[in-house]
């Protein structure tokens, strides 16, 4: 039996390559990962410019103790440049985003001035007020997005602000997903007596795509050695990671292990955790293989713990694990010493602290415990039953 942490370390040790880079238009880079440092070739903003609609003036023109009347010599819209130098006694009507004219250092908002024809009466304000400085957002030469950054909407905006039309990002890792089991029926098809509908393939596809992968659906495989063997090899031929669910336990029809013993390079683990004890990890051909448990909650949890970090590493990310923080358990929880237990939790902020409770029955086949939850509650190996008021770890479900 190995610990969850040892299992994660062993998985990550096996992932030694990173998906190749490709150039992708910025508008299509959401969720992608930068393959190289993105450096700015320019200052952003490229010039000092006005932060408000108002009047650009050399502030030395306005006496500290009172107002002064100035000539309005021209109007400047964003996108234009004032070609001259502003002289003493002159003001330039300026719009938000227009470059500061030479000779001016301060912008007086239109709300504080009195405009009379070609003249404007301006009261004193602090020098350099309402001016956005060249390079105050980004300096030329700075690394703005280091390699391994996941591109969220704000990173796309920043990349575009540097004038970049495309980015060198990692290709999406290719994940092939299969379900195993004679009892597993395809949704939309009439279920035979004794069958259940496949949920794992769909949950795994969602998890894989949410983790940045490109998923290929390889359907349901019956519990037949030769067919499973052929289908796994076929799936591995065009994938970086092959995922199966079911068939890794100790039942008479749990064939995944037997098949993989023939393809070689496979580790079978009993992980000291609950749910999700049995999992098979290794390689088929050039693909990484994860044989996840059949029970739907265990299947999703083992993806979260072992597959996602591998996928993120393969996808070139710097961070391989999601956030984890402490919350107060508001009700007691049963817990066995010696294994890491994961409960489905509902995490709420009460106004002064984060509190968490379980979703109710925690059977590893109760998949609606995942839909009611917004986090996993993690109770460490050495702990026993948790009393109300004790602190536990929570791992919030990531967006989507
Ligand atoms: P196994 O490890 O194959 O014995 O499966 C463990 C449990 O998970 C059994 O109750 C299976 O029916 C169930 N199971 C296996 N695969 C799936 C699946 N794709 N969708 C939903 N339940 C499944
Ligand atoms: Mg099975």
What attributes does this structure have?
400 residues; alpha/beta; 6-stranded mixed beta sheet; 7 helices; 19% helix; binds adenosine monophosphate; binds magnesium ion
Taking all Cα atoms into account, the compactness measure Rg is: 30 Å
Strand residue content: 25-35%
> What can be said about the biggest beta sheet?
6 strands, mixed
- Give the terminus-to-terminus CA distance: 33 Å
Mean pLDDT: 96
Residue ranges: pLDDT <50 for 5 or more in a row? none
The count of helical stretches stands at 7
Shape: elongated
Largest sheet, spatial ordering of strands: 7-4-6-5-9-8
Question: How would you classify the helix and strand content by structural class?
Answer: alpha/beta
- Strand runs, count: 26
**Quaternary structure annotation:** single chain
Question: What compounds are bound to the protein?
Answer: adenosine monophosphate, magnesium ion
- State the helicity in percent bands: 10-25%
